[in-house]
Each structure stands twice: as structure tokens, then as C-alpha cells.
Amino acid sequence: MSPSATDSESLDGRLLFAIPKKGRLHDKCLELLAGSDIQFRRSHRLDVALVKNLPIALVFLPASDIPSFVGKGNVNLGITGHDVILEANMENEVAEVLRLGFGKCALQVQVPESSPFKSAEDLAGKRVVTSFEVLAGKHFGEIDSRLQLTGDAATKIEYVGGSVEAACALGLADGIVDLVGKYKSGDTMRAAGLHAIATILETEAVLIKHTVEKNAAFEPLIQTITSRIAGVVAAGKYVVCEYNIPREKVHDATAITPGRRAPTISPLEDDKWVAVSAMVEKKNMATIMDNLVKIGAEDILIFNLDNCRV
Ligand SMILES: Nc1ncnc2c1ncn2[C@@H]1O[C@H](COP(=O)(O)OP(=O)(O)OP(=O)(O)O)[C@@H](O)[C@H]1O
Ligand SMILES: O=P(O)(O)OC[C@H]1O[C@H](OP(=O)(O)OP(=O)(O)O)[C@H](O)[C@@H]1O
């Protein structure tokens, strides 16, 4: 009989890799796994999936539980938000191996547009609702102690599991602490008639590993997985830019497209011209092309990368 993911013996010798089972990070994690050629089939409703081509088992968990699973060594590796690591107080138990460039958002203090409170200090002593009671508690704890607000005068932090943005309209809170997406950011906040008055933390998804020796035997496999995932992340971040430029402009061209180490410069049949090839950050692509045109570059081409190791 072939091993099943529910058969705990089949997990022996496998590195356990925790993946968010739903929510904002889930789909991006599946893209990373596919790009890293980590092949698996997850049976309906099962939260453990054996990887077919590597000695790994994927464990699908809520993003907020992953820091403590990794921190306590129940799983070896995981992907989650930097914010939830701090919220779980696991920053000393897990090592952040790689930033993944998605799940970018900010944990912000928000109040109704019409609120008289203009800063987190104004809100101190009032009612604050959040899913991040540790981080919000630390933030307002510091303000309270600075403003000497103690006992009944201290800020009242109340936990809710979701839909935090509704708390002010429902009369439960004077302000909230919640995440605001970095791209197309603030839709939820604006729809709820709120605006941000302070930022507690900027965060993105990270690859994390257990810090203690429990991982020693898996270290070579962790290196392989990290290198593959880093390749997928870099391939999403960079494009290759190729163009022709008069030879006397090579110096200017190199300043515009320095590449990661140096641009590749190749001769053309016309010896007054050279071809240049360099990796550039996707987000700067349009400006770089504008600047190349200005110095006389021609035939500028941009190529997406499927994968890379840089
Ligand atoms: N709007 C957003 N834009 C980008 N990243 C986000 C956003 N909201 C949350 N994240 C990131 O995704 C992580 C998981 O958030 P998400 O709301 O998906 O949680 P979840 O595990 O689905 O929880 P829930 O049980 O509340 O649905 C957050 O900790 C944060 O790092
Ligand atoms: O700035 P935006 O892109 O609008 O995203 C922000 C919202 O996303 C998250 O909640 P999510 O939608 O995951 O659901 P939740 O309220 O159940 O946590 C977060 O808690 C905000 O409410």
C-alpha cells in the first residue's frame, strides 16, 4: 500500500514545511512551491501532503499558528507574515531566512475620519479593538507609560478575531489597530470610513526556520529549498533588459543599467555600436527605458524571467 499523508510513519525522515492553509498568503505560497518544483497532491480536507520528489511533507496551518509550530520545533520550516511572528512572541525562536516580497502591508492605528484623535497619543486611554493584542498592547503600553496613564486611565485593548474595521461603527471602539495592504492599499479602511494616524509595523511574508539544532540534519535540504524559493522570488523581481547603444555611450549606459554584478557588453557587426544586456528591477523598468532612449539606445527589449539563481 502506498504511504498516505495520515500515516504518521510516512512522515519519518521528512522535513516538515508549514504553509498558510487559507487567507492572503495561501495562493502566493502555492505559486512559490510550483516555481520551486516542490510537487505534491493535497487530498481533499487533509492538512498534510507528502512531496513526491523531495523528502518533505507540507503541513497546511493557519498563518497565525505557524510561528509557534516552527518556534517550538514541531515543524522545521514555514512561511508566514513577519507581523504574526512578533504577535506570537516567537522572534527569538525562529530565524527569518528570506523575505518573500508578497503579503506586504502595514499594521496601523486607525480612527474614524470624523474622529478628534489625530495621533496614537490622542487615542491613549481610550478603547482600541484589534486582532493584534500583543503588538497593539506593546505600542499603547509604551505610550501609556510615557503619559503616565495607569489603572482605569490606561488604554483598553480588546481582541476580536476578524472584521476589526467594523468596531468603531458598532460603537465598540474609539480606534482600531489593523493591517492595511501596501498595494491598492486601504480599501477596507476607507470603506469603513477610517483613516490611519500611526504605523506600528511594516511587514511582508517571510520564510522561517527553527533556530535550534533540531534542524541540523535537514540543513542541506533547507539550503536547497531556500535557494529554489529565492530564485522564484528574484525571477518575479527582475527582468532582463537588452539594447543597442553607440560605443561612446557605454559609460552612460552602464550607469543606467549596472546589472547585479556588471552588464554584459557584446560587439556588433557595426563596430561603432555594442549590445548591452543587464538585469533590472521590474518596478524601475519604464524609467530605465526612458533614460536609455535619452542617451541614444535603440532596439530596447525587456524579457521576463521564468526562474533564476542570482
Ligand atoms: N491586505 C493585506 N495585504 C497584504 N498582506 C496581508 C493583508 N492582510 C493580511 N496580510 C498578511 O497575511 C497574513 C495573514 O492574514 P489573513 O487575513 O489572510 O489571515 P488568515 O490566516 O486568513 O486569518 P483569518 O483567520 O482572520 O482569515 C497577515 O498576518 C499579513 O502578514
Ligand atoms: O488594505 P486592504 O487591501 O483593504 O486589506 C486590509 C484588510 O485585509 C485584512 O483582513 P482580511 O480581508 O484578510 O479579513 P479579516 O478582516 O477577516 O482578517 C486586514 O485585517 C484588513 O481588514
TrEMBL record:
<feature type="domain" description="Histidine biosynthesis HisG C-terminal">
    <location>
        <begin position="235"/>
        <end position="307"/>
    </location>
</feature>
<dbReference type="InterPro" id="IPR015867">
    <property type="entry name" value="N-reg_PII/ATP_PRibTrfase_C"/>
</dbReference>
<feature type="domain" description="ATP phosphoribosyltransferase catalytic">
    <location>
        <begin position="63"/>
        <end position="230"/>
    </location>
</feature>
<keyword id="KW-0368">Histidine biosynthesis</keyword>
<keyword id="KW-0963">Cytoplasm</keyword>
<dbReference type="Pfam" id="PF01634">
    <property type="entry name" value="HisG"/>
</dbReference>
<keyword id="KW-0808">Transferase</keyword>
<comment type="pathway">
    <text>Amino-acid biosynthesis; L-histidine biosynthesis; L-histidine from 5-phospho-alpha-D-ribose 1-diphosphate: step 1/9.</text>
</comment>
<keyword id="KW-0328">Glycosyltransferase</keyword>
<protein>
    <recommendedName>
        <fullName>ATP phosphoribosyltransferase</fullName>
        <ecNumber>2.4.2.17</ecNumber>
    </recommendedName>
</protein>
<dbReference type="GO" id="GO:0005737">
    <property type="term" value="C:cytoplasm"/>
</dbReference>
<dbReference type="InterPro" id="IPR020621">
    <property type="entry name" value="ATP-PRT_HisG_long"/>
</dbReference>
<dbReference type="InterPro" id="IPR013820">
    <property type="entry name" value="ATP_PRibTrfase_cat"/>
</dbReference>
<dbReference type="InterPro" id="IPR001348">
    <property type="entry name" value="ATP_PRibTrfase_HisG"/>
</dbReference>
<dbReference type="GO" id="GO:0000287">
    <property type="term" value="F:magnesium ion binding"/>
</dbReference>
<keyword id="KW-0067">ATP-binding</keyword>
<dbReference type="GO" id="GO:0005524">
    <property type="term" value="F:ATP binding"/>
</dbReference>
<dbReference type="Pfam" id="PF08029">
    <property type="entry name" value="HisG_C"/>
</dbReference>
<comment type="similarity">
    <text>Belongs to the ATP phosphoribosyltransferase family.</text>
</comment>
<keyword id="KW-0547">Nucleotide-binding</keyword>
<dbReference type="GO" id="GO:0000105">
    <property type="term" value="P:L-histidine biosynthetic process"/>
</dbReference>
<dbReference type="GO" id="GO:0003879">
    <property type="term" value="F:ATP phosphoribosyltransferase activity"/>
</dbReference>
<dbReference type="InterPro" id="IPR011322">
    <property type="entry name" value="N-reg_PII-like_a/b"/>
</dbReference>
<keyword id="KW-0028">Amino-acid biosynthesis</keyword>
<dbReference type="InterPro" id="IPR013115">
    <property type="entry name" value="HisG_C"/>
</dbReference>
